Amino acid sequence: AALAQIEKYDPHVGAFLAVRGEKALDQAREIDRRRARGEKLGLLAGIPVAVKDNLCMEGEPTTCASRMLANFVPPYDATVVARLKAADAVIIGKTNLDEFAMGGSTETSAFQKTRNPWDLERIPGGSSGGAAACVAARMVPLSVGSDTGGSIRQPAALCGVTGLKPTYGRVSRYGLVAFASSLDQIGPLAQSVEDCALLLEVLAGHDPRDATSINRPVPPYRELVSQRPDAIKIGYVPEMLSDGVSPDVVRTMEETLNVFRSLGAEIREVALPHARYAVATYYIIACSEASSNLARYDGVHYGYRTDEKAMLAELAEERRRLQQEGNLAALDDLDTALVRLYRKTRAEGFGAEVKRRIMLGTYALSAGYYDAYYLKALKVRRLIRQDYDQAFERVDMILGPVTPAPAFRIGEKINDPLAMYLFDLFTVSANLAGIPALAFPAGLSTEGLPIGVQLQGPPLSEERLLQMGYLFQ
Ligand code: GLN
């Protein structure tokens, strides 16, 4: 059924970069046979799950939507992929994303645009745009995304599905192609809070292969999700409902607060005074880490390599010309073959947004600017975390918007990186603080587009966030 749905709708939506057709069917049939033999099956037995294409799966191309990794086939499974397999899920395909997960609209994918199933002229959000769109179009019930600064929650909100960014370290990052390692976290997208709980239970857990993974038992989220949490205090930040936020989002937030009030929650105002610096802080830290992480794509070890023959011929030709001209200074400066290989490989392999971030990050980390930018950003990051610590002394969780407005039109912001970055205003803080956040659909705009809200809680409060989300749904 999932494959039929993909065949019918994905030509319009473009959520998948690869579909495992026959291989997925074979796997499903094998699970059926095991079921018939009375074998004990895993939590996701036979359920089709889509996986974002920055997660390694043995023997399957893992492209990160980049020319740099267009032909990369990993020889190993990411821990989350291994866990899905162990739970007898059927991995049905790999979903589209912004190149290396850098973006908020899935428009920076080197291969294709993904469209929002609610309005095909609009972006599905990003960077896990494919992951959200395939759930929204009911191609699959579950998909796995990654969230560095909102990439699960933002597309979930814009596509009207539910998504959770877990506590940093709750889910192993082993086998996730690194973007910004101190912010990256893998999590579930699904049609409901209950399904997110189920998928999180499979994904979460300690992994010795990720040094930042938390060594704590995984609660049985699926069982706990329908339990009613007691005496919940929900905070909200009044300034988040003011300037620059669309009236539809403000109304949805107010309505959601009222629903929670009617469900017995106590609503309180809280302050996150440093939230206004979150976007600036995030982009300095994320780009710095990205510039370092992406240094590995050198055309030598693996991934794309420029046409060496053409490159060597070009270099020889330049040398000959400079010798003829007697231009010794330029001859001295001429690239070595290895430098030219590196330069051309990266020039051809990376798209514009990835290059922009490598340059920003390299600048922020360079001698002389490090203290002013990177170190300062780390300090503000600490203040943002402290704001949350203080707020969570007064409330159990904080309700906020996910995006300042519903999904925008394809092409609307692609030539304005700053406008694109500012759209991340409400999501990046949770990553900077390492806290969990659950985004779920809460209303519709006047144009009929989905609007999501998010509940953020202290580290490892996934269980409670899911319970409150469940109560709302
Ligand atoms: N939109 C944010 C960015 O462009 C977040 C991306 C993400 O979470 N992967 O960096």
Lay out the secondary structure.
Elements: H1 2-13, E1 16-19, H2 21-36, E2 48-52, H3 79-86, E3 90-95, H4 129-136, E4 142-146, H5 153-159, E5 162-165, E6 186-190, H6 193-203, H7 221-224, E7 233-236, H8 247-262, E8 266-269, H9 278-293, H10 308-325, H11 328-333, H12 337-349, H13 352-365, H14 371-394, E9 397-401, H15 417-422, H16 428-433, E10 437-444, E11 450-456, H17 462-472
Parallel strand pairs: 2-3, 2-4, 7-8, 7-9
Antiparallel strand pairs: 1-3, 4-6, 5-6, 5-10, 9-11, 10-11
This protein binds glutamine (GLN).
Glutamine (GLN) is lined by residues 101-104, 127, 147-151, 179, 286, 424.
Can you walk through the features of this model?
This protein has 473 residues and is of the alpha/beta class. It folds into 2 domains: 2-277 and 393-472, Amidase signature (AS) enzymes, CATH 3.90.1300; 298-349, no CATH class. It is built from 17 helices and 11 strands. It has an 11-stranded mixed sheet with strand order 1-3-2-4-6-5-10-11-9-7-8, with helices on both faces. α3 links the parallel β2 and β3. α6 runs antiparallel to α17. The longest helix has 24 residues, at 371-394. The mean pLDDT is 97. Bound molecules: glutamine. Residues 101-104, 127, 147-151, 179, 286, 424 line the site of glutamine. Glutamine (GLN) binds at residues 101-104, 127, 147-151, 179, 286, 424.
Top keywords for this entry?
473 residues; alpha/beta; Amidase signature (AS) enzymes; 2 domains; eleven-stranded mixed β-sheet; 11 strands; 41% helix; binds glutamine; EC 6.3.5.7; Glutamyl-tRNA(Gln) amidotransferase subunit A; glutaminyl-tRNA synthase (glutamine-hydrolyzing) activity; nucleotide-binding; ATP-binding
